[in-house]
Amino acid sequence: SGKRLPISVAPDNGRKIAIIGGGPGGLTCAYYLKRLGYSVTVFEMQPKLGGMLYYGIPEYRLPKKILDWEIQGILDLGINARVNMKFGVDFDLESLIAAGYEAVFMAIGAWKYSSARLDKEEEVAGVEGATVFLERQGLGVPNPVGNKVGVIGGGNTAMDCVRTSLRLGAEKVYLIYRRSEKEMPANPEEIEAAHDEGIEFVLLSAPHRIVEEDGNLTNLEYLKMELGEPDESGRRRPVPVEGSETLLR
Ligand SMILES: Cc1cc2nc3c(=O)[nH]c(=O)nc-3n(C[C@H](O)[C@H](O)[C@H](O)COP(=O)(O)OP(=O)(O)OC[C@H]3O[C@@H](n4cnc5c(N)ncnc54)[C@H](O)[C@@H]3O)c2cc1C
């Protein structure tokens, strides 16, 4: 509706609290502390508040305009925000204590992407982690993709990457997942949207080897899988089929 509901805030109790990280965790903490009467400052290393909602979730799923509006509603309670401030670089615990902060809440998220456990994955140009790719998109800096993109994984982050790659102009986008579609952790509506947009699902396939030439990615070799007994997650464990090395078309 574009209208804000009135939110009650207790009178200022004169006590200062620093929050490190301006994602949903930090902003939620700031919101409740402010309502209890504390004087709250959020320190964020990125130029914009929002954390992964800003630098991870793509625009087509969560428009920045809506996110900015929601965040402004929180700040309007009287919360201070300082962006481009990295804890450990631009300030530290000592400087916060010296400035009169009595408590610090750390809400720095979990930005490290998991490894595909492939040789040379950190070295070969054209291979990178999902959050690195999506962060560039959130920052609004050039984010070129090749004609063919392969995304490894079957969760919501993988869905964000395949769908973003299409929007960046990739002609062919593969989603490579080691189990079947039934075991995918992504939301069903994300899976359906990826199908509708023409993503090719390469299922029961686990990445095996990065193929490169002069340090540049040229292909991905994968192993075909069969589903065995359920593992500790309750999903059937993928088992490699011997001699099934295949190059992505
Ligand atoms: C691609 C992707 C898609 C997702 N989609 C969904 C979804 O659809 N629905 C859903 O519910 N969840 C989704 N999530 C998960 C959701 O984004 C996270 O659960 C949520 O953002 C976690 O909030 P947080 O505040 O703990 O961390 P973050 O959002 O990561 O925020 C941490 C903040 O701390 C800042 N920071 C880190 N280090 C420092 C430092 N040294 N100094 C200052 N600031 C620092 C970071 O810049 C960041 O702004 C998605 C996650 C990803 C990666």
UniProtKB/TrEMBL annotation:
Name of the protein described by the UniProt record: FAD/NAD(P)-binding domain-containing protein
InterPro entries: FAD/NAD-bd_sf, FAD/NAD-binding_dom
Organism for this UniProt entry: marine sediment metagenome
Coiled-coil region: none
Gene3D superfamilies found in the cross-reference section: FAD/NAD(P)-binding domain
Domain spans labelled FAD/NAD(P)-binding: 16-219
An example Gene Ontology molecular-function term: oxidoreductase activity
Pfam families found in the cross-reference section: Pyr_redox_2
Residue span of region Disordered: 230-249
